Amino acid sequence: MAAAQAIDSGALALARQERRFAWYLLGPSLLLLLITTTAPLVYLGWTSFFRLDMTMPWLSGFAGLDNYGKMLGDPRFMNSLWLTVVYTSSTVCLQILVGLSLAMLVQQIPKGQGLLRIAAILPIVLAPVVVGLFWRTLVLAPDVGLVDLVTRALGLGSQNWLGDPQLALISVIAIHTWQWTPFAFLVFLATLATLPADVYEAARLDRANAWQRFRYLTLPLIRPAIIMVVIMRTMTALSAFAAIFAATGGGPGSSTEILNLYAYRTSFTELNLGYGSSLAMVLLGLTLAVSYVMFKRRKAAK
Amino acid sequence: MKQTIPRQLMLFTAAGLLLTVWAFPVIWGILTSFKTERDVLAYPPVWIFTPTLDNYRAVLSGADSILPNLWSSIVVSSTATLLTMLFAVPAAYAIARLKYPGKQTSGFYVLVTQMLPPVGLVIPYYLVLQRIGGLDTYSGLILIFMTFSLPFAIWLMVSYFEDIPLEMEEAALLDRAGRLRALWYVILPQVRGGIAVTTIFVFLNSWNEFMFSVLLGGNRVRPVTVAMFNFISVEQTQWARLAAAAIVAMAPVILIGLAAQRHIVKGLTVGAVKGGGRR
User: Fold this and answer.
1) Can you list the domains of chain B with their CATH numbers?
2) Considering CB atoms only, which of A127, A133, A260 is closest to B119?
3) B22: nearest CB among A138, A182, A287
4) I want to staple A54 with a disulfide (CB 3.0 to 4.6 A). Which of A5, A79, A249, A271 is the partner?
5) What is the mean pLDDT of residues B178-198?
6) pLDDT tens sequence across B116-145
7) DSSP state of A302
8) C-alpha distances out from residue A123 to A117, B23, B42, B153, Å
9) Is the confidence at residue B273, as pLDDT, over 50?
10) Is A99 part of the contact surface with chain B (CB cutoff 8 Å)?
11) Does the pLDDT value for residue A278 go beyond 50?
12) Cβ B91–A139 below 8 Å, yes or no?
């Protein structure tokens, strides 16, 4: 009896000690994150209730909900919100579609997958700002860019890929898709390699055709990977900035100005930090809402 | 699987197309960096040209040199990476392996901090750093870099710690000094690979960072990603110079990426299971 008690109190002491050890290890990181992420966001929220315009500093002061009210009547804000939705959904869908098809094709190639993997890693490791500049100059520039060289050779003539509002939006979507599809491709390639071969053999014996095998075997098996890629790519697309900034700067006009760019331009080009803060708050709310929904769905899928 | 010849041909065509789309722009950039400005703008494009090193000379010395910017990038990225790892590894171990109240909440908190939009963070940083004179300083930029690298590093490391077999948990029976020693001598060697992969990812992300650098840096602290814009202006774009500068600026990440390609693929998938990355 006494021995059991001694063990009990010993285990308790150990548990207490483990708890303390855990906080020693975790404490510094949590403190740092609190200071560098949570505190600034509280400050951002606070700033969004102020009029803070560096071009008119004498007008600075508490403004209540004015900044948020202003948004409702701001067509440029509505436009940026819409562009964010278009940009995010189209790039994510394209990455999944192209990445998955490529992975399924490449998976059947017996040799040389290594080379393809190297080619796929190149865009991923490049800085988005460099990718944006690269495309702006070497790929999409009128007359001498790679794309124009092809269209001119095909007799389609030259296009102002980044100067025309509609083409510019397509171009920045293409740039993002170019850079990040390899990520989806590599993840899918790795996932496909882990699928059990015998199940496919059985399906073939049952005369399931290629489409049926894909629909009823592959798709359910790689579902977790797809969900994961969707979550990660959505987060990246929502915080996309550097590539668009480098390629178009949000222009021409505001035709590629997703919410990120609009908040940036308002705050640091037009120096209206109060309104910029409220725009950033909307983006924050949007990001958190989207990730909440996605993680919920992911849990439900498991 | 039976493979007919036309089928194989189709696959290889697809692969070739793939290589062209992804690798060719980069190869084209490398070619451009060895051209004169006149050759760059020639139509039809010149494939055979006399390569020149002028562009590289220009971006590595003289008025347009990006060497100071490379130095800025090296200082900021490596310090931020080192600090991040020092904070992240112990924290990840606690989240992955130890029992304490608030374990789920703290893990979730770290996950949420990873998803915050950078533009939302940069506005308050700018206001605060401006007030305390922290703009254009190394310490300011390094601290801010940790906001995106720390949550990412913690979650990637958590997934590696979770892979260690449970027997290692016997270390839990030691006293506190023993715990630290056990972590250092028994546990950490098990996750050496994970530490290497995480370090690489954190360094890549730091090296490629742009928004924080352009706003919170300045004339003194000016990483290479910002310096790219030296070669591009409304009046004139120096194509070949820009290409050369981009090659020089991206050489470290390309080399690291190629050298660690196997780990990168693993890091992408492993890290992805739980938290995932953000750029």
Assistant:
1) 5-58 (no CATH), 64-274 (1.10.3720.10)
2) A260
3) A182
4) A271
5) 85
6) 899 999 999 999 999 998 899 999 999 999
7) -
8) 11, 8, 27, 21
9) no
10) no
11) yes
12) no
